[in-house]
Structure formats: structure tokens, C-alpha cells
């Protein structure tokens, strides 16, 4: 398992030289048409391109505000953060619960200290100005902003298990890739192929751009490079 994760982490710099819409196209071509997170999940700052290995977690929503002891409420959340490793990308499935923030600034600093690459949640985030004021803003993708604490509203219940987040089924060890266009999940078994084909597609697209700048018609350029 450690060897497999190391192999996946080595793919990250190559993947981050691509871009999310291109990877989305390649996933479509492989028949993986449900691997793009819901379009409402957006980065909190636009100048972002980040990939990492999925570290999954789920939360439980309370229908009504519930008074709860701090230690018990934090137990799984703290275990989750302490269990993460360099290269991880947190994936927090909340079943679209946004009545309280499932992520915030202290969690971002804790995750960054553990070597995490980013987080995507189909819930809400808070402390956005504080996250943005970190020396390097921690990459956060979320459905909404909400200043309300998750305490009493939802709690972390499990981690390291398959989850559904933003309509995408994610398994621990899959690759998460996000930029301003959105977020995709690459199944770990398909990651090497996606990266290889992505690099080939980039070369063809660059050749296409150069061709049309030289005056070649769009139809001639497409016929030659088969990209558009």
C-alpha cells in the first residue's frame, strides 16, 4: 500500500502540469462519466491547481441543534487529522449539509502541518479570510460559506472509507485534482494512464495552437492533430 501511494504521489507534479477540463475529457473517453464533482463546489481562491491522494471522511448531520461535549464531538475529527500523511487530499462527504461548516482555518493549518495538499467538501467552509491569509492559502473547495460552527449541527463519524462527495464516489487512494474550473476524481488504477494520455493531448493541443497562429485553417489543423 505504501509503495502504491508513493507511485501515485510521484504522478502529482506531472498531473498538475495538466488542467482539470482536459482530465475530465479523458475520463469521459474512458467511460468514467461520473467523476466530476458537482459544479457548485468551487475553490475559495481562483489561483489554484492542486492534486493529491484521496483521504476520505464522512459527517453526520443533526436535524436539530444538539448540545454536545467538546471532547466527544472532536474525537473522530482529531483522529482523522492525525492519521493523514503527506500527499493526502481530504475528501469530506457531508451529503450536502451546509447548515454548519465542515471545514475551517484551524483544520486547514492542521492539515497543512501534516503535509496535506488540499480539501474538497460538498458542505460549507468558514474562516475564509483566515485561510486566505495563510502564508500559502490552503486549497479548499466547498459548496458554500457559512460562519456557523459544525458543533451541534454535524460531526465527523468515519474516515478512510469509500464516500460520496459532490455526487462522486471516491475511494481512499484515488487521485483528486482541482483548479478554478472544478474538481475531478481519478480512480487510482487509471491515474498513470490518465497522466500519460494527458501529456500526449497537451502536446497535440500546443501543436494545434501553433498551427492556427501560423495561418493554417481550423479544419486543416483539426485534421492533422485531432484535437479541439
What does this structure look like?
- It contains seven helices and 13 strands.
- It is α/β, with parallel strands linked by helices and 228 residues long.
- It has one domain: Glucose Oxidase, domain 1.
- Strands 1, 2, 3, 5, 7, 9, 12 and 13 form an eight-stranded mixed beta sheet that branches.
- The model has no long low-confidence stretch (mean pLDDT 94).
Task: Summarize this entry quickly.
The chain is of the alpha/beta class.
Name the features.
single chain, alpha/beta, Glucose Oxidase, domain 1, three-stranded parallel β-sheet, 7 helices, 36% helix
Alpha-carbon distance between the termini? 38 Å
The oligomeric state is single chain
CATH topology group: Glucose Oxidase, domain 1
Strand content: 25-35%
Number of DSSP helical runs: 7
CATH class: Alpha Beta
Gyration radius (Cα, Å) is 19 Å
User: Architecture, CATH level 2?
Assistant: 3-Layer(bba) Sandwich
Low-confidence runs: none
Q: Helical proportion?
A: 25-40%
Global shape:
elongated
Mean pLDDT: 94
Total strand segments: 13
Structural class: alpha/beta
What's the helix-strand series?
Answer: HHEEHEEHEEHEEEEEEEHH
Largest sheet descriptor: 8 strands, mixed
Q: Please name the fourth-level CATH homologous superfamily.
A: Ribonuclease E inhibitor RraA/RraA-like
Compute the number of structural domains. Answer: 1
